[in-house]
Structure formats: C-alpha cells, structure tokens
C-alpha cells in the first residue's frame, strides 16, 4: 500500500507546466485577454501539452486565445512557480515576451470573452488574473525572474 501511495504521489502530485506570453504589438501596445471564468484581464497562455515544446505551446495558446501570430520571441521574462500563483492548481508558468501581428480572432470562445490592446499606461493592473501583474511588471522592469 505504501509503495502504491508513493507511485501515485510521484505520478500525480506534480505541478503542471504552463506558459504565458506577453504579446507586443508593433504600435507599442500589449494585447490582453478577458477571461470568461472570472472576468479578469490576463496574458494569453495555458498548459503545455504532452510532447510539446514550451515555445510551441506559447505560440499555440496565443493563436487559440487571440488569433494573433508570433513574429519573434523577444525574451524570457521568467519562471513563476509559487504554489498559490494560480488558485486553481499548482502550476509552473514560463513567461516570454514576443512581437506579434494579425487581427484578433478568438478561437477559444469558452475561455476568452474578448481581446484588447492596451497602452502600458492603461493596463488594468488591479484587474489582472493570477500573478500576471507580477509577470507584466517584471517585463516592464527588464527583469528575468525566477519566483
């Protein structure tokens, strides 16, 4: 029984790996999504699929949630792993900033209510989901964070 509990713990008691992307538009704006579940603004992102590279997951999630296309990954912003960072589950989030282009076309209508571009001064920092305020502030401060 003890061995079975240990094996189950090893297999299922692990943080999930996800990614967020800071979508930088050519006009200097940052695209954010409005989540359907809590009405908060957020960075596009989600879980990395089995067998998927983190870069590909970020690009896929951006496309699904906004319709935008990555033209260039600009930089790693950080790795965020505090257990309380996401109230739904313990997840490790790898955040990148990327230049993006295209027209908004939400594919994942169950998760995303709308997409909006914000000037940095107009980002609703007090209405951001999870730890996205921390992630965006680290980007704006030019940090690469391990938190």
Determine the mean pLDDT: 95
Strand content: 35-45%
User: Element order, helices and strands?
Assistant: HEEEEHEEEHE
Q: What level of helicity do the residues show? A: 10-25%
State the end-to-end distance. 36 Å
CATH superfamily annotation: Nucleoside Triphosphate Pyrophosphohydrolase
* Domains (count): 1
Name the shape in a single word. globular
Give structural notes.
This protein has 147 residues and is α/β, with parallel strands linked by helices. The protein has one domain: Alpha-Beta Complex (Nucleoside Triphosphate Pyrophosphohydrolase), CATH 3.90.79.10. The chain is built from three helices and eight strands, in the order H-E-E-E-E-H-E-E-E-H-E. A five-stranded mixed β-sheet has the order 4-1-6-5-8, with helices on both faces. Strands 3-2-7 form a three-stranded antiparallel β-sheet, with no helix packed on it. The protein is globular, with a radius of gyration of 16 Å.
Question: How is the topology of this model organized?
Answer:
Layout: H1 2-12, E1 16-24, E2 30-35, E3 41-42, E4 45-47, H2 54-66, E5 69-80, E6 91-101, E7 112-118, H3 132-140, E8 145-146
Parallel strand pairs: 1-6, 5-8
Antiparallel strand pairs: 1-4, 2-3, 2-7, 5-6
Structure summarized in a few sentences:
This protein is of the alpha/beta class and 147 residues long. It contains three helices and eight strands, in the order αββββαβββαβ.
